[in-house]
Design goal:
Strand order of the largest sheet: 1-4-3-2
Order of helices and strands: EHEHEEEHEEE
Structural class: alpha/beta
Strand content: 25-35%
Distance between the termini: 27 Å
Helix content: 10-25%
Shape: globular
Radius of gyration: 20 Å
């Protein structure tokens, strides 16, 4: 079986309403909200007596999502400070493609987000990191010029600008994967 797609990323939160409002303001759409509890949930999570409220948010294109979970029992556990630095081990941020970084950063700062930093990534992307409620870091990527679309197998990815000698392969990589062709007998 092949991996089909990344469906969503789970973020455990204390203030579900504040974090949900942050992601909705960013541009995600609320897909649904529900309470989960009981032995089946416990068998999945490895926790006992689980009771949690979930909010599922999707990107406007429907291809990716954020699941926000507020645990009522057992209580959520915080490891480390709320404003964990970007280089801390673990998942540190989620990134979204946007049309206008300046507009999004200004809008999100008006709703309490903090601008961590920004940079130009080669000649293809402008990037910014913002910190939202509960220390959640969100990356924003704006295309600087028309880059190849990043969909499907073999999707093009922007490369960082390097002034050094290229490492590794100098020829274009062969296409990997794809459909197998039937041999003629």
């Amino acid at each position: 079986m092949a991996l089909k797609r990344m469906d969503n990323v789970l973020i455990v939160v204390e203030d579900l309403e504040a974090v949900k409002a942050f992601f909705i303001e960013l541009g995600l759409e609320l897909e649904g909200e529900s309470m989960v509890e009981g032995p089946l949930v416990g068998s999945l999570t490895g926790l006992k007596a689980v009771r949690a409220t979930l909010a599922m948010l999707r990107t406007p294109d429907g291809h990716g999502g954020i699941e926000l979970d507020k645990f009522h029992t057992p209580n959520a556990i915080r490891y480390g400070p709320v404003k964990t630095p970007v280089n801390a081990l673990g998942i540190r941020r989620v990134m979204f493609a946007v049309d206008d970084i300046d507009e999004v950063v200004a809008r999100m700062r008006a709703h309490g987000a903090e601008l961590i930093g920004e940079m130009q990534y080669g000649d293809t992307y402008r990037l910014a990191y913002i910190r939202g409620p509960e220390g959640i870091i969100v990356g924003l990527a704006e295309e600087s010029r028309k880059a190849p679309p990043r969909t499907g197998k073999g999707a093009a990815r922007a490369k960082p600008v390097s002034r050094g000698k290229p490492a590794g392969r100098t020829r274009p990589a062969r296409k990997v994967g794809g459909a197998r062709q039937k041999r003629k007998s």
